[in-house]
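Known limitations

Files may contain more than one protein. Parsers should not assume a single record per file. Below, a two-record file is shown to illustrate correct handling: read the sequence, read the token line, then continue until end of file.
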Amino acid sequence: MRRHRQREEARRTILGATEALLVEDGYEAFSMRRLAERCGYTAPTIYHHFGDKPGLLHTLLEERFSDLRERVRAVGSCDDAAETMRALAHAFVDFGMRNPTFYRLLMTPRPEAEGPPRAAEEARAVLEEPIYDLDRAGRLYAADVETTKQTVWVLLHGLIHLRLSRPDHPWSDDLVEVALDSLLRGTVRPRPAAESRQAS
């Protein structure tokens, strides 16, 4: 049991140091030597836990995105896809604000040869599912679903990035709610009256 705890502590420490270095210096400047200096574990120990540098980076991204995936999966579905879209947007913004280091890592450009982690694609699919539902129901104002998706991501990343980068600014307490109201009014048509009555 003690050995297991020591392994888990080493693993968490190495991953945390890896995340911090990637945010500070980017992927190109990242090195196992600097990681060993930062985390206090030797390179052989790091290799023992993660195999090699690509294995380490893959594990970090997969774990961090898995946390996001599980957070948005826990939201569930509402009767109205627009309300599901709102709830998922809230969850994403909340996750980004509570995990600023991960969010900055999310925004750090990765080498083009590296595809997105599986958990990242799964989290994105959950977040975008209600947009496709609204498109199939003919409720999007935009002519193509891609425009709506990009609009949503621009707003969500703006809400997180600006508040993280300017924590000293007196941001409004209801900023997120007002922004999401504006987003939904500008991108989603109201539900037909008959459908609304059936839902109630």
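...continuing to the second record:
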Amino acid sequence: MGLRTVLLLTAAGLPGVLALLLVLPAVPDVPAPLLLAQPALLLFLLALAGSWAAPRCGFLLRGASSLAARLGEVGIGLALGLCLAIADHLARPAWQSAPGLPPGILEAWTPAALVVGLLYGAVVEEVMLRWGAMSLLVLALWRLLA
């Protein structure tokens, strides 16, 4: 794994970084695209770190599987997400009786939040945390404890 992997992972995350423009608040005297510099840089650096550390830990990027398998994975993900949203809504009275607590998933839903959640949360955070940070952490612990 090398520069090609870093570039592919960064390219996969760029739509999620751009989606942040939908939810970022305006900052006086700062152009909106400039607000994306930090998340884009973090995405690239952690993709780079993961591409360096992951092979040393024995981690691999999952290869392509059949379309039927991918559709099954998407279906399972959608079903689990729906179950969590329903559970959140049903359990809301147990944890949201006091005023001032955050709203449940269904009350706080907006199209922009959905887009950012799908593109940034599902792709960018996975690359940064699972591929980058976790690979570095596993490698550090392995070297320290092994």
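Parsers that stop after the first record will miss the second one. For reference, the second record is described as follows. Helices lie at 3-19, 37-57, 67-95, 105-108, 111-145.
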